Amino acid sequence: MIRVESVDKQFAGRPVLDNLSFTVPDGQITALLGANGAGKTTCLRIITGLLRADAGRVLLGDIDVAQQPMAARRQLGVVGDREGLYERLTVAEYLTLFASVQGLAGKSLERALDAVREELELDALWLRRTRGFSQGERMKVSLARALVHRPRHLILDEPTRGLDVLAARLLRRTLSRLRAQGTTILFSSHVMSEVAELSDRVLVMAAGRIVGGGSPVELMRESGCDNLEDSFVTLAYGAAAGRPRQEEPA
Ligand SMILES: Nc1ncnc2c1ncn2[C@@H]1O[C@H](COP(=O)(O)OP(=O)(O)OP(=O)(O)O)[C@@H](O)[C@H]1O
């Protein structure tokens, strides 16, 4: 389970996250929605330990991300900016490096590499250097890097941005399989059809706070709308106009 508890973050004195609290249950896919600038990426970066909160804390199970960064890293897979590939390395070399950093060696390293190679259909890319990779190819390698150590928690920032139909489908299939294995998954997206299809739970952010949360059906009921996109607009932009509601931490 991921717990975000009373997190504040300011940039240059401007509040971006404002006493933000929510939980992400195990074995479910949770989508984080919000208008541009609502604070989604900032929130995900704090969960993954890339940014420090000004106040509050983030727990992965019992592990405090800021207090126990090494332990947190072993529990986390992160798919963020797909630009971070080392272009001189082949996919095999790159994934070996990341798996080693996570403490894998010998037979368990080999097994971990074989598993992501098969699951993410990486055969054709395996011995290629990542320079010049397409968006879809980069996503596959980023996802393989995030999963190679079998983390309990997976965080993805707009994972289907720029992907074609087949690559997006592979990603969705992979997320569904991971959910069935009990992985806790949190992803941000602007694509409502994908959110409606994939998510067990949706969190709507506006101005650094949670303004709605529940299953897609619950959100539609709460907002009195018959589709997720209208619910999102009602909750996110209605709230931005001045009626925020903070979800209680579970
Ligand atoms: N390093 C930074 N320095 C200053 N301001 C920042 C920084 N990072 C984010 N911000 C600001 O914080 C606010 C929230 O940004 P964030 O990237 O978290 O939003 P988002 O919800 O992910 O938006 P989008 O949907 O456009 O990706 C924005 O106003 C952004 O300009």
Give a verbal description of the structure.
The chain has 250 residues and is α/β, with parallel strands linked by helices. It has a domain at 2-83 and 151-240: Rossmann fold (3-Layer(aba) Sandwich). Helix content is 39%, strand content 24%. Helix 8 (216-223) packs across helix 9 (228-240). Residues 242-246 have low confidence and may be disordered. It binds adenosine-5'-triphosphate. Belongs to the ABC transporter superfamily.
In the CATH scheme, what's the topology name of the domain at 2-83 and 151-240? Rossmann fold
How would a textbook summarize the main sheet?
6 strands, mixed
Instruction: Give the structural class.
Output: alpha/beta
The helix/strand order is EEEHEEHEHHHEHEHEEHH
Q: Give the tally of β-strands.
A: 10
In this entry the ligands are: adenosine-5'-triphosphate
Radius of gyration: 18 Å
CATH class of the domain at 2-83 and 151-240: Alpha Beta
- Relevant CATH superfamily of the domain at 2-83 and 151-240: P-loop containing nucleotide triphosphate hydrolases
The appropriate CATH architecture of the domain at 2-83 and 151-240 is: 3-Layer(aba) Sandwich
Low-pLDDT runs:
242-246
Cross-sheet strand order for the largest sheet: 6-7-8-3-9-10
Record the SSE blueprint.
Layout (H helix, E strand, L loop, with lengths): L1 E10 L2 E11 L4 E6 L5 H8 L7 E6 L2 E2 L4 H7 E4 L11 H11 L4 H14 L15 H13 L5 E5 L7 H16 L3 E5 L3 H7 L2 E6 L2 E6 L1 H8 L4 H13 L10
Parallel strand pairs: 3-8, 3-9, 6-7, 7-8
Antiparallel strand pairs: 1-2, 1-4, 4-5, 9-10
